[in-house]
Design a protein that fits this description.
Length: 302
Amino acid sequence: MKNNVSADDLQVFLAVLAEGGFRAAAKKLGVAPSKVSTTISRMEVQLGLPLLRRSTRSVHPTEQGETLAGRVGPLLSEIAFACADAARSTEEVRGLLRLNVPGAVMPDILPDLIIEFQSRHPKVEVDVVMDNNFVDIIGAGCDAGIRYGKSVDKDMISIPIGPRQQQFALAAAPSYLQEHGKPDHPSQLSPYNAIRYRLPDGTLLPWALRNAGSSYSAKPQNRLVLSVNSLNTGLSYARAGLGIIGTFRNWLDDDLRAGLLVPILPAWWAELEGPRLYFPSRLTSTPLRAFIEVCKSANRAL
């Protein structure tokens, strides 16, 4: 028994279900009703099972037919979409791209990507919505979102965006360390003043430090607490000598190079999974597909 049913036959089968009958499907496809009936019969013989329950007034899928339709329908739609996309590949990309992103990617990860994207596709309007909560991007009217790896829903498609790994790092101004000294171990952080960030649910971003299999949760003196919506504004307070700041290492790089801040306990900086661009379906808008290509190009350059 052969079960290599052709894509054309599957399209006929789906048309019968969509139109609710052989005659309506034939009219939709522009073929004779007898050809539709012959096609369905041939499929049932090839598969060795009934796909449709027929009556004089209606056609309904069997359990096996419904399962088949549910699996092949999206696949055939994606094939058609891919072919149409290839045909449009030389067309100018235009429209709206709406992204929902956390504040953590705003200072240094997202700007380079947006600049490159708009240099390639100047007719696309980009609308960036900053939101540190994990949101339903469809409900929020966004094409895609950016979140950190473990928080991306399993039913979403996602790709890396920016560094694969980041670090939670500590730093302070030389003036602060001259006055208070430099700690040699996380256990010595308790008396130090801290510049910290508060997560959307109200909890403080933990100072979770790790070194060679050892971990330590530091609890310094909270001198200044900022919402994560404040982005990297905490750096200005750290430069002024207000205390030790705990934040993403990549936010600190320029200040560390310039000597405005000094690294604290770098051997204990914890590795974090980097951000990912996520979206609900491969059947994406043209601007989003173009943005995905920019992200993939940037990933290859890392």
